[in-house]
Amino acid sequence: QYKFRDLTIEELKNVTKTYPNFTFSMNTYTFKDGSQKDLLNFSGTVPVKYGNSYNIPIHLWILDSHPFAPPICFLKPTANMGISVGKHVDANGRIYLPYLQNWSHPKSTVIGLIKEMIAKFEEELPLYSLSSSDADRQSELLSYIAKITEEEADVKSKSKIGGGKNEGCFNKITVVGAGDLGIACVLAVAAKGSADKVVLLDLSEGAAKGGTMDLEIFALPNVEISKDFSASADSKVVVLTVNSLGNAQTYLDVIQSNVDLFRGIIPAISHYSQKSVLLVASHPVEVMTYVSWKLSAFPKTRVIGVGANLDTERFQYILTNHLKAQVLAKGAWIIGEQGEDKVPSWTSCNLVANQTEAMAARNSREKVANRAMEVLKGKGQRSWSVGLSVADLTDSILKDKRKIHSISTLAKGCCNINSEVFLSLPCILGTNGVIEMVKLEEDPLVQEKLQSSAGSIHDLQQQLKL
C-alpha cells in the first residue's frame, strides 16, 4: 500500500545502519478524525546529552506517501517517565520540529530528522524522571510556578509598553505560505489595521527571496517573517495559502499533494494556536477546508474557507452600481463552489404576493442576475483581490462584527445535503468563526445545483488519503 515502497525501504535500511537499536513493525494508527490506517512504524532510543547522557525513547510512524510526506513523531516514555510539555512537544508526546514542517524530498530524510530531534532535545529535555523524591518534586513545582509568574509579569510589562493592550485583546494573525497569495494577504491584512501583529510563515526552501525578501528589506511595522511554526503561537486567525508545486500528473494527484502538504502543517498550527479560526485560501478551497477540519479536529465553526466572499462582494457591487438594482443587491449572494458551478441566491424574497406578479418579478430578477453574472465572469481572481477578501473576513472575525459573508462552511444538513462537504453559504462571522448560517430563499434549481456540487466534491474526497 506504500506508493513509493522501494524509496521507503531504502531509507529505512539506512536508519537501521545508523541506529541499530530501532525495531520495526506494522500497526494501526488512529488519526485525529478517528480514521485508521495500517502504517509502518519504528521505535528506539536516541542519545541526548543534557549535562548527563540520556537515551530518549521515540516512536515514528511512516505515512504511505513517504518519503514525500514527513513521519508522525512521538515520544515513547516508560512508566517512570513524565513528558515535559514545551516548544517542540505537546502533552500527548507528539513532536513538532521545523524539520518536519519544512520536509521536502529528497533533501529531507529520517536520519536528518533524528539529528535535529537530538539537537532540539539537548536544548530542552523532553522527559523527566517520576522517581524523584517528594522534596525534589516540590522544588520543581515551585520553580515551574516561579517561571510562569515571571513570564506573566514580562507579558504585562510588554503590554504596557505597547500602549496598554493586554494579552487577551492582542489580535494576531498568521499567514501560512509566502507565495504571491500569502504576501498579498499579509499586505492587505496589515493595511486593514485590525491586527496588532501579522506573522508570515515562509515554508519555502533556502534563504528569503522574491516578495519575502522585499518584505524584510522594507520592514513593515507589526509584520514578522519566520520559518518556525512556534512564531504562530496564540494567533486569533490562521490563513492558509500554501499549494503544492509537485509534479502531479492528474487533478486528483494535485489535490493529494496538497493533502500531504497540509498533513505536515495543520497539526503544528492547531498545536500552537488551539483557539484560532482557520481560514483556508488554498485550492480547491472546498476540499482543503474539509481537509483542514479533519486534520485539526477543530469545531466546524472555527474552520472556514474564503469561498465565494469575493464573488459575492463583486456581485452586490455590480447589481448596485452597474445595473442600478439596489433592492436586489441587499439579499444577493453567490453560493456553492468556486468556479463555474457557483450560483446566485437570495436570503429574502422580495417578490409580491400575487402569483402572476410574483412570477414576473422572479423572471425580472433572474435576467438582472444573469447580466450581473456575465459581468462577474470576466473579473477573475488575482492574488491581490483574494488578499483583500481575506482581510475583509479577518476584520469581521477580529472585531466580532457579526457581518454576513458567503464563506466555505460545512454544508451537511442544508438543502438536503447529507455528506460532509464544505460549500459557500451566507454565514454570520464573529470572534469564534461561524455564529449562524443564514437561511436562504427556497429555490429548487439552486438546491439542485448545491446538491450536485456536494455530490461531486464528496466523490473526490472519498478518493483522497487523509
From TrEMBL:
Alphabetical list of CDD domains matching this protein: LDH_1, UEV_TSG101-like
Pfam families linked: Ldh_1_C, Ldh_1_N, UEV
InterPro entries named in the record: L-lactate/malate_DH (IPR001557), Lactate/malate_DH_C (IPR022383), Lactate/malate_DH_N (IPR001236), Lactate_DH/Glyco_Ohase_4_C (IPR015955), NAD(P)-bd_dom_sf (IPR036291), UBQ-conjugating_enzyme/RWD (IPR016135), UEV_N (IPR008883)
Catalytic reactions of this protein: (S)-lactate + NAD(+) = pyruvate + NADH + H(+)
Biological processes, Gene Ontology terms: lactate metabolic process; protein transport
Gene3D superfamilies the record matches: Lactate dehydrogenase/glycoside hydrolase, family 4, C-terminal, NAD(P)-binding Rossmann-like Domain, Ubiquitin Conjugating Enzyme
Superkingdom field: Eukaryota
GO MF entry, a single one: L-lactate dehydrogenase (NAD+) activity
PANTHER family per record: L-2-HYDROXYCARBOXYLATE DEHYDROGENASE (NAD(P)(+)), UBIQUITIN-CONJUGATING ENZYME E2 VARIANT 3
Function of the protein: Interconverts simultaneously and stereospecifically pyruvate and lactate with concomitant interconversion of NADH and NAD(+).
Name under which the protein is recorded: UEVLD enzyme
Protein's gene: Uevld
